[in-house]
Design goal:
Layout (H helix, E strand, L loop, with lengths): L7 H26 L10 H20 L1 H32 L1
Helix pairs in contact: 1-2, 1-3
Keywords: Membrane, Transmembrane, Transmembrane helix
Protein name: DUF4229 domain-containing protein
Organism: Streptomyces daliensis
Length: 97
C-alpha cells in the first residue's frame, strides 16, 4: 500500500472536520454580528451547528473529491485483501477435512 493511501480515511475525516469547524466559526461570527438570524430564544447554539452542517456538507463534497476517491481505493483494497485471506483459509480447511 502506498503512503498516499495508507491513512486516506483518517486524512479525509480530519479534513472534513476542519471544513465543518471553519464553517461553524464563520456562522457563529455571522450570527453574533447579526448577519445570520440567531434563532429563536435559546436555540442559538443548535441553529449555528445545524447551519454549519448544511453549509459544510456540499463544500466537503466538492472540495474533498480526490481525498474521498483515495479513501474509497483504500477501503476496496482492504476488502479485497480480507476476501483473499478468507478464501485462502477456507481452501486450507477444505484440504485438511
Amino acid at each position: 500500500m502506498s503512503s498516499s493511501t495508507s491513512h486516506a480515511t483518517l486524512r479525509y475525516t480530519a479534513m472534513r472536520l476542519g471544513i465543518f469547524v471553519g464553517c461553524l466559526v464563520i456562522v457563529a461570527v455571522l450570527a453574533y454580528v447579526g448577519v445570520v438570524p440567531k434563532g429563536l430564544g435559546r436555540s442559538n447554539p443548535l441553529w449555528v451547528v445545524l447551519l454549519a452542517l448544511v453549509i459544510s456538507a456540499p463544500l466537503s463534497f466538492v472540495l474533498l473529491r480526490k481525498q474521498r476517491q483515495r479513501m474509497s481505493e483504500q477501503i476496496v483494497s482492504g476488502v479485497d485483501r480480507a476476501k483473499t485471506r478468507l478464501s485462502a483459509n477456507q481452501s486450507q480447511e477444505d484440504s485438511v477435512a
